Amino acid sequence: MTAPTRQRRGLRRSRDLFASFLVEQSDPDRFYGHLAADSLATLSEHVEVRDRIVVDVGAGPAQFAAAFRAAGAHYVPLDHDPHVASVADGGIVGSALALPLATGSIDIVFSSNLLEHVPDVEGVADEMVRVLRPGGVLYLSYTNWLSPWGGHEASPWHWVSGDYAARRYERKHGKPPKNRLGETIHRTSIAQGLTWATRTPDIEILAARPRYLPDTFRHLLRLPGVREILTWNLLLVVRKRPAPVAPTR
Asked: For the chain, which has fewer Cβ within 10 Å, the N-terminal or C-terminal residue?
């Protein structure tokens, strides 16, 4: 098997990702296609996706389905909304809080920008680990509340308050925002993800860094408080440890 190629995650990559981000609404195919390719390249540094079962929890844009399937993965999108494009095209409808999957049945679990939308971050992360087979890999990323984009479309006014951000958005656009604090978005922190990963005994951490920033910015995660504002989005890649072998008599 060919050794995986490591990405060069420098300033140019970050610049290009943010340029794509700016046209998310006007050119979603460009943004989500770029993000899907970048995510797949990162995941492929840690695990071969070809011929593996990949479950995308919180699936959405069809560009992720296209990227994984083009790489030879058996890609299965899962979301609570049956109308999500990738789910409507042969996916699974279910809750991330209780995945409708057997324990130890999945090679790779992929979840991009879901955790900020669930009320129980640790519970959902535990569910993803549960369904992984021993040796399976979890790719997990999310936007934390105090990041510049923490309020999503109502950002950066969420720094004042969630209610103020929602009111301001509605006054400007004539409709309420899709994401409202305490309903469809929550005060998820970088500390939550790091604490979960370091205290979960049956996983090993393969990568922990800001998702969109150059690799040199990984040291931000060592700075409580500062990391909550500057990280933007936390990426965790973890592997489920093999089950302990019972001693023989």
From this structure: C
Q: Return the H-helix or E-strand segment holding 88.
A: helix 85-88
Which tokens is 190 given?
A: 């970088």
Instruction: Decide the pairing of beta strands 203-210 and 106-112.
Output: unpaired
* d(C-alpha 95, C-alpha 98), whole Å: 5
Residue 224 tokens, joined:
């409580």
CA–CA separation, 79 vs 107, rounded Å? Answer: 18
Least confident of 11-25, 57-71, 184-198, 209-223: 11-25
Sheet strands (E) in 85-157: 92-93, 106-112, 132-143
SS3 194: helix
Show the CA angle centred on residue 80, arms to residues 74 and 81, nearest 5°: 95
Give the C-alpha distances (Å, rounded to integers) separating 232 from 43, 90, 169, 180, 244: 19, 32, 21, 19, 37
140-192: pLDDT as tens digits: 999 999 999 999 999 999 999 999 999 999 999 999 999 999 999 999 999 99
pLDDT for 5 equals 60
In whole angstroms, what is the distance from residue 75 CA to residue 69 CA? Answer: 6
What pLDDT is attached to residue 4?
56
pLDDT grade for 66, boundaries at 50, 70 and 90: very high
CA atoms within 13 A on the CB side of 113: 18
Q: Where are the beta strands (DSSP E) in 81-131?
A: 92-93, 106-112
Task: Quote the pLDDT of residue 1.
Answer: 45
Cis peptide before 247 (omega within 30 of 0): no
